[in-house]
Predict the 3D structure of the following.
Amino acid sequence: MLAGNRRFVAGTPEHPNQDAARRAQLTPGQEPFAVILGCSDSRLAAEIIFDQGLGDLFVVRTAGHVLGAEVLGSVEYATSVLGCRLVVVLGHDSCGAVAAARAAVENGLPAAGFVRDVVERVTPSVLAARAAGLTEDSDIIDEHIRHTAQLLMDRSRVLSEQVETGEVAVVGLAYQLAEGSARMVTSHGVESMEGATR
Ligand SMILES: [Zn+2]
């Protein structure tokens, strides 16, 4: 995956696994090697920024990569049923959800409708970052990525057991919109991370 990101950054993507042969090969079933829980931001399209194709990534995206029961169920399905060995939390700079949570905390600006649900799920990360004296956008984004990875394992017993036994690794990546590159922020169960280098 990181090799794919390097190709994307360099402007030399191979667009692997995107032809009719791959489509036909996958008809009987899928075996994606990674599940990605990423922000829905339109600039963060997983298969494009990691230069992957059909059947490679199982992608779950919500604004601010916030997670509720549906997300947890989707991630557990990917690791337990499809056999994904790598879970990636993918955040990014200039994240609107994080900015909205900061505005809510710092200026008391509440969000309307169900956007409020998203903002409230990001708020604990913003508060934790503030408590640690972090004010830079990138530091708060990193905190939210770490928090999301930890929350995944805290809330999903299935996933935490898979990490403990070395079946699955959970990593957090921060994507830089301008550069197109992703850097590692956090990792759990690194011994089974060979998928990340694909
Ligand atoms: Zn975002």
